[in-house]
């Protein structure tokens, strides 16, 4: 049996009463015709969501208001199979978790450092607004994670996470602090058009499959230092507004920076490019720092004419040539 909110196609917002069956899935879809007051009247409690998860029930919410915190620390701790000490104890979300186009007004967190939070089904937060902090550090996502179009008004922390399936954050808006420190992406990552409004930390992250940040915008300091890109990485037309760090980063496969703009300093110190890079196709307002950077000899151009200083030099050369040409023509006459 499934608890479902039904609605009419008119401007009304009709919701069916929820079942009292504890084994029923938690499913509520509110239409776009619902007014803010009606959504508030049919708000879902954060505790109800956690209770459903604890009972192994699927959660599928669309267009709802969630009041109260979603604290995954309340889930029971279970022993985990395997000898990995980090995962000896875990909390599990066994069914799919989908919260789409919704207004989440409480925190969403898992903070026990000695336990792993394992999501066994897909996670879908498309288009939802998270008004308080999100901390899912030390989580394992076994299937697809979709954050497309979501808005994180405060911190979004996924420290030491493991993303085993595809991860999508297209057009996602991240707030003042985004952290994926020491995480592993075993599946492809697509953050096309994402906005990282605050600090963005991808330090010591392993990307095993293709990753793209094409047309993404980084508003504050950005760090990819110590990260390992094992497959293709695309920063095409991305904008880095402040300091950016790629120190000790390893690029094993194709690297694309075509049309990227670095408006602040950028540091590639001790980074290693194992295939030809295209740094020369990016724009640097300050010359990039390339101390001890390993690049293939055939692609050692530092993109002089894509820096502001390089463009000034190029303009000066053109002016000098034009002046000499004019002087020559006058002399000939």
List keywords for this structure.
alpha/beta; eleven-stranded parallel sheet; 12% helix; disordered N terminus
What is this structure's SSE topology?
Elements: E1 2-3, E2 25-29, H1 36-41, E3 44-45, H2 46-54, E4 59-62, E5 65-67, E6 70-71, E7 78-79, E8 89-93, E9 97-100, E10 103-104, E11 108-109, E12 116-119, E13 123-124, E14 129-130, E15 134-135, E16 139-141, E17 145-146, E18 151-152, E19 156-157, E20 162-163, E21 167-168, E22 173-174, E23 177-179, E24 184-185, E25 189-190, E26 195-196, E27 199-201, E28 206-207, E29 211-212, E30 217-218, E31 222-223, E32 228-229, E33 233-234, E34 239-240, E35 244-245, E36 250-251, E37 255-256, E38 261-262, E39 266-267, E40 272-273, E41 283-284, H3 308-332
Parallel strand pairs: 1-2, 2-4, 3-5, 4-9, 5-10, 6-11, 8-12, 9-13, 10-14, 11-15, 12-16, 13-17, 14-18, 15-19, 16-20, 17-21, 19-23, 20-24, 21-25, 22-26, 23-27, 24-28, 25-29, 26-30, 27-31, 28-32, 29-33, 30-34, 31-35, 32-36, 33-37, 34-38, 35-39, 36-40, 38-41
Antiparallel strand pairs: 7-8
């Amino acid at each position: 049996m499934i608890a479902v909110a039904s609605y009419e196609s008119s401007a009304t917002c009709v919701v069916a009463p929820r079942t009292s069956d504890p084994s029923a899935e938690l499913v509520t879809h509110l239409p776009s015709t619902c007014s803010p007051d009606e959504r508030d009247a049919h708000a879902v409690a954060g505790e109800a969501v956690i209770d459903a998860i604890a009972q192994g029930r699927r959660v599928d919410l669309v267009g709802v208001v969630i009041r109260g915190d979603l604290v995954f620390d309340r889930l029971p701790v279970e022993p985990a199979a395997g000898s990995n000490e980090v995962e000896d104890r875990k909390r599990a979300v066994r069914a799919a978790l989908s919260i789409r186009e919704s207004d989440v007004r409480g925190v969403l967190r898992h903070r026990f450092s000695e336990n792993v939070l394992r999501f066994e089904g897909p996670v879908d937060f498309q288009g939802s607004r998270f008004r308080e902090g999100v901390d899912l550090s030390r989580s394992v996502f076994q299937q697809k994670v979709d954050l497309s179009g979501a808005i994180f008004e405060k911190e979004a922390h996924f420290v030491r996470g493991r993303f085993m399936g595809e991860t999508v954050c297209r057009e996602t808006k991240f707030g003042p602090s985004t952290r994926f420190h020491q995480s592993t992406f075993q599946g492809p990552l697509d953050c096309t058009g994402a906005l990282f409004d605050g600090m963005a930390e991808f330090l010591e992250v392993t990307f095993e499959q293709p990753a793209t940040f094409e047309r993404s915008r980084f508003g504050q300091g950005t760090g990819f230092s110590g990260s390992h890109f094992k497959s293709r990485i695309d920063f095409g037309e991305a904008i880095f507004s402040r300091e950016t760090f790629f120190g000790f980063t390893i690029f094993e496969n194709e690297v694309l920076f075509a049309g990227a703009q670095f408006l602040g300093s950028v540091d590639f110190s001790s980074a290693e490019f194992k295939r030809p890079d295209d740094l020369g196709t990016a724009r640097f307002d300050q010359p990039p720092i390339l101390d001890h950077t390993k690049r293939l000899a055939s692609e050692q151009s530092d993109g002089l004419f894509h820096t502001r200083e390089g463009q000034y030099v190029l303009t000066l050369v053109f002016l000098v040539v034009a002046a000499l040409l004019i002087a020559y023509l006058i002399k000939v006459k």
